[in-house]
Every structure is written in C-alpha cells, then in structure tokens.
Write a structure and sequence with these properties.
Blueprint lengths: L9 H21 L1 H6 L5 H19 L2 H7 L4 H4 L2 H4 L1 H4 L11 H5 L2
C-alpha cells in the first residue's frame, strides 16, 4: 500500500506520519524474532523497539482525541454490545458483528 500525505496540511501530515511510524514499529516489534532470524534487524535494534514504540505513543497521545473524533463514531456505536464488553460479546457466534445491523438500517 502506498501512503500519500501530499494533499494534507502540515499538522495532519505530521500526525499521519507518526501513526505510520507507530504501525511500522509495532509490526517489527511484534515480529522481531523473524526480523532477527533473517538478519533484517540487529539485536541492538531489536532492543530499541519498545522504547521507540513508547516514544511514538507519547507523541500521538496529544492527538488521540481528535484522531478518535475524526472517525465520527456515534454514541450508539460506542454503546453497541462489542463496545461495552468485547470478551463476552465474542464468547459465542456474533454473526460477524452484524446481527441485526442490516434489519435496523433497512426498516
């Protein structure tokens, strides 16, 4: 996937770049054993992943609320069964989390 931020403002571009970096560091961190085994990263670089991840989380924290609000998630969606108790919601078959969604939308 190609990520382009050319048509965004400087503030938005910075936030998007931080999110992209966080995603990439998170992926490498979660798969560090594979990257180490294939000599893509060094043991020293692997040791730095957690601190880099934490640093990026702190950077993004200042923009967390505006980022979340940009998705325009309604109160109804936040109070959906999965939003209240994810673990118990997924205990059984939730039919792809769409049970009743289409019925309510098209009536």
């Amino acid at each position: 996937a190609v990520v382009s931020t050319q048509s965004t403002g400087d503030d938005t571009k910075g936030v998007l770049q931080s999110l992209l970096h966080l995603h990439l560091v998170s992926y490498v961190k979660d798969n560090a054993a594979w990257f180490l085994t294939h000599s893509i990263i060094t043991p020293d670089q692997s040791k730095q992943l957690t601190s880099k991840f934490d640093e990026l989380c702190r950077v993004i924290a200042a923009d967390a609320l505006p980022l979340i609000e940009s998705f325009k998630i309604s109160d109804e969606m936040l109070s959906a069964p999965i939003g209240r108790d994810w673990v118990s919601f997924n205990d059984g078959d939730n039919r792809g989390e769409l049970d009743g969604f289409f019925d309510a939308e098209h009536n």
